[in-house]
From TrEMBL:
Family matches, as CDD domains: RraA_family
Top-rank taxon, per record: Bacteria
PANTHER family: 4-HYDROXY-4-METHYL-2-OXOGLUTARATE ALDOLASE 3-RELATED
InterPro entries assigned to the protein according to its UniProt record, in alphabetical order: RraA/RraA-like, RraA/RraA-like_sf
Listed Pfam families: RraA-like
Protein source organism: Jannaschia ovalis
Coiled coil stretches, renumbered: none
Official protein name in the record: Putative 4-hydroxy-4-methyl-2-oxoglutarate aldolase
């Protein structure tokens, strides 16, 4: 037999990155940040912005771990949210009921949260739109969750195929949600300058009339890796 877990486990250290680290990530689109991390770090494509809401947010992750159909961890996140936080609510991908609704989001906005991300659906779309807090979710359902636990706050969770830990930086826009691990922040910020310069240079070349990728032209000119059939 195993010992019954506590209904709610909360990390003592709800760490958050420095404001200038968040601002450095927020200055770029999600695609640039993914490229600065070697081409990965985005949540599953099904996690998308809800309509009628702002589609850009960036801030420290406040991680709520929930079992399927439960939101006790999310309710704990409401009580501990600080200005600028993005609550990341794990549901283990459960699609049978909503991860949260308009009243939860209203309280988060009152606490100054910057956004809400979940791997489950939401409910109360009109109310959520009235609140105005940016939300990324898998869709909508009117089914209600419960609040029994066990749940966690501030401990790592798996959301949309990506590990999210307390204090990671979450950047979300119209393309999706990217998670920058806490211990990689300075490295990614440094790489972003190089990525941004290359992207802007390529944009200028395409705008000026460039009409083919350099990689394909190099392969055709050298013959390496090309077989004509």
């Amino acid at each position: 037999m195993i010992e019954e877990p506590a209904p709610l486990r909360i990390a003592r250290d709800l760490r958050r990155p420095a404001a200038d680290q968040v601002a450095a990530i927020a200055a770029h689109p999600t695609g640039f940040v993914v490229d600065a991390m070697g081409g990965a770090g985005a949540m599953a494509a099904g996690i998308a912005p809800l309509p009628g809401l702002p589609d850009r947010a960036c801030g420290p992750a406040l991680v709520a771990g929930n079992r399927p159909g439960d939101l006790l961890g999310t309710l704990a996140a409401v009580a501990f949210a600080e200005a600028g936080d993005i609550v990341v609510a794990e549901t283990q991908g459960f699609q049978g009921c909503a991860a949260a609704g308009d009243r939860v989001l209203g309280m988060l906005k009152n606490r100054g949260a910057a956004g809400f991300v979940t791997d489950g659906p939401m409910r109360d779309l009109e109310g959520v739109q009235a609140v105005g807090l940016p939300v990324w979710a898998t869709g909508l359902t009117p089914n209600s969750p419960v609040s029994h636990g066990p749940a966690t706050l501030g401990l790592p969770a798996q959301v949309g195929g990506v590990r999210v830990a307390q204090g990671d930086v979450v950047l979300a826009d119209c393309d999706g949600v990217v998670v920058v691990p806490f211990d990689m922040l300075d490295r990614v910020i440094a790489a972003l300058d190089v990525v941004a310069q290359a992207e802007h240079a390529m944009d200028a070349e395409v705008a000026a009339g460039r009409h083919e990728p350099g990689l394909i032209r190099a392969m055709l000119d050298s013959g390496d890796g090309v077989q004509w059939v």
